[in-house]
Design a protein that fits this description.
This protein has about 190 residues and is mainly beta. The chain is built from two helices and twelve strands; from the N terminus they run E-H-E-E-E-E-E-E-E-E-E-E-E-H. Strands 5-6-7-8-9-10-11-12 form an eight-stranded antiparallel β-barrel. Strands 1-2-3-4 form a four-stranded antiparallel sheet. The two termini are about 20 Å apart. The N terminus is likely disordered.
């Protein structure tokens, strides 16, 4: 995407017009440019890079402001592995991972009393000795770390979510149900925008 907009303002004062040989003029030119690129990564995520530049020239002085940002978009619609369950203290837990295993994952914890997601993370995930770490793709660098206590033959798993949330027992659910339930829990629309 390429956007360009410009504005030129030229004004002359009445005194400059009336005075012979004297011109009181000022000019201002502002140019904005924004370039966005999207790249699809091997793991199915999309990285969006945006660079914007604003150049202002006023009375012969030029100033330039530049900004750049990068964000990763995780598309969970193609995922097939999803679980939903409850913590010991009554919070609902959602967990899903990409089809390639735990290279991409999400976890969200919903509090039915406040009717809000109280914790969530979606992005690149690693598993190390029974501990899963999900680094949030939202660009904050924050993440969520939790343990896998057990995976059972009946399709359930027990997660250790730490001191604040305790243990949670999750049961495998189909992805369509998972997406409908988590979108309903995401009352602000910010997590799965």
């Amino acid at each position: 995407m390429f956007k360009h907009s410009g504005r030129v303002i030229v004004s002359a004062g009445l005194a400059g017009i009336l005075a012979i040989g004297t011109c009181a003029c000022s000019s201002s030119v502002e140019t904005k440019t924004e370039v966005s690129t999207e790249t699809t990564n091997e793991d199915g995520t999309t990285t969006k890079n945006t660079e914007s530049t604003k150049t202002t020239t006023e009375n012969g002085t030029t100033t330039t402001e530049s900004q750049s940002s990068s964000s990763t978009v995780v598309d969970i619609n193609s995922w097939t592995d999803a679980w939903k369950g409850e913590t010991e203290n009554g919070k609902t837990v959602f967990y899903a991972e990409s089809p390639s295993g735990v290279s991409q994952a999400l976890i969200a914890i919903y509090d039915p009393q406040t009717k809000a997601l109280v914790s969530h993370s979606i992005g690149e995930a690693t598993i190390d000795d029974g501990t899963i770490t999900i680094i949030d793709a939202g660009g904050t660098g924050s993440g969520f770390v939790f343990g896998i206590e057990s995976q059972n033959d009946d399709g359930t798993a027990v997660l250790d979510l730490g001191e604040e949330y305790g243990k949670a027992t999750l049961k495998r659910v189909d992805m369509q149900t998972f997406l409908a339930d988590i979108k309903e829990a995401d009352t602000t629309g910010e997590f799965l925008a």
